[in-house]
Amino acid sequence: MSRADHMDVAAYALGVLDPQDAERFEEHLATCWACAAELETMVPVVGLLSGIDGEAMAALEQTHTDPALLDRTLMAVRRDRRRTRMRQILAAAAAVVVFGGLSGAGIAGVFGGDDGKRIPQAEPTLTAPITAPPSPGPTASGPGIGGNEQEGDQHDATDPGTGVKTTMWLASKEYGTQIDLQLTRLPGPRTCRLVVVRKNATSEVVSTWSVPGGGYGTNTNQLPLELSASTSAPLKDIEKIQVQSVDVNGVASPLVTVADL
Description:
Layout: H1 3-6, H2 9-14, H3 19-29, H4 33-49, H5 54-62, H6 69-80, H7 85-102, H8 106-111, E1 153-158, E2 165-173, E3 176-184, E4 190-198, E5 203-211, E6 225-231, E7 238-246, E8 252-258
Antiparallel strand pairs: 1-2, 2-3, 3-6, 4-5, 4-7, 7-8
Helix pairs in contact: 4-5, 4-6, 5-6
């Protein structure tokens, strides 16, 4: 994907792209978490400048906690693009000034910052397995624990090298295994994934997410990361479940492992 695709975020958020460029950018946005995160920081400001109504603002606010971040963000942006051309031009001019002052604080505002009022949540996505075919069973993803009593057996682990700590709840299902987990002491920024390793030596990536600069369960951001995923592998066939960090070259390294299954 060209560098220009990554630089169209502001233009798309303000609705100044022509239909062809907007469609091309939306295709790019569906596979680029970095642009999606940047777009999320711009939507609330653009909505404020363009006089977005109460119903639309409520929808934009939901994007901070709703796991279906991309779909809801696109819906809010498309509503803004129906505004008159004059309003879009005025919003673009004002945004140049506003973004100049917010560049250092925009991301902190989205992810909660120091006040802890907004709860950041990861948006897990199903990806292709490392060495095994895609799981035929359903995969539930998104925030899943939030203080409720958990289903399944609890497993706690802390990696002595990375210091990352996790609590996982594993429950056997007809389709496979349900996995709920909580992560703390997880520094950022980084990209992470959840990997299920079967006893037959095959592995499957069941969730991926990005970690903001403040991390989760750290001195900067004390809130833990909470998410759910599932696999078609029966619990009795799972050897271990591992949280991995993936660098820019796609090389993965373990952060914490639950192996007492």
